[in-house]
Amino acid sequence: MVSTTTAPSAPQAPPTLRRATTEPPWVQFLLIGTALAFCVLFLIVPLIAVFSEALAKGVELYFAAFQDPDALAAVGLTLLTAAISVPLNLVFGVAAAWCIAKFDFAGKNFLLTLVDLPFSVSPVIAGVIFVLMFGSQGWFGPWLSDNDIKIIFAVPGIVLATTFVTFPFIARELIPLMQEQGTEQEETALVLGASGWQTFMRITLPNVRWALLYGVILCNARAMGEFGAVSVVSGHIRGLTNTMPLHVEILYNEYNFVAAFAVSSLLAVLALITLLLKSFIEWRIEQQHQE
What we know:
single chain; mainly alpha
């Protein structure tokens, strides 16, 4: 009997894998072009329009808009509101994120829902809620009147409304990062004899410092630009309870377009500075992850 052997077949080349995100060049150009067109139309063009309208009648009138006492009061109130609400949100955001990410307790999901509440409630509704609570006809209105305490149509009401609208920003930046980092480092520090405060200051806080700064910047930007809730509780009192967005609205309704766009340009400059800081911190966070 003659035995026959079959020659081994040549190995077949593996099939070429096509990435799911690979598209033809024309599709890529179409998507990129559409995104750029939207950015130019809804971001760049309005930004250019603000500065062009603000400088339309000369630099002198532009800077004269900031010499108005009402404008200076609006700028000062905006900075004061941000200076109070941002630190309050900083304390709350760090505490809430630390509790939610590092501990298990009853009501954890409920606390997380409360953190997200301002994202789902209209700022105008939030302002109305504060009026119903602290207004002259509200729940605490008679007691506040008897003790000569003014919240609505005053600075405290503006600070309360701004704090409510902005308090999720810092907590929401910290919670995912703290959950990703886990609790191993903190547990090791406690085993080695560190106190809870030492563990927080030397391990937890340094690990989230860039995310914390990122949240503070976003919170500050929203605090300075908030309109809806502040508009309800402020009373629009010139020189007293008008922030920069409210002052812009009043100037525009009075057809004082140069002054309105001048103050708007200041808000735009603050937004651009915020964007630059945000980009820098995003770069630092990416560098930290690579390390």
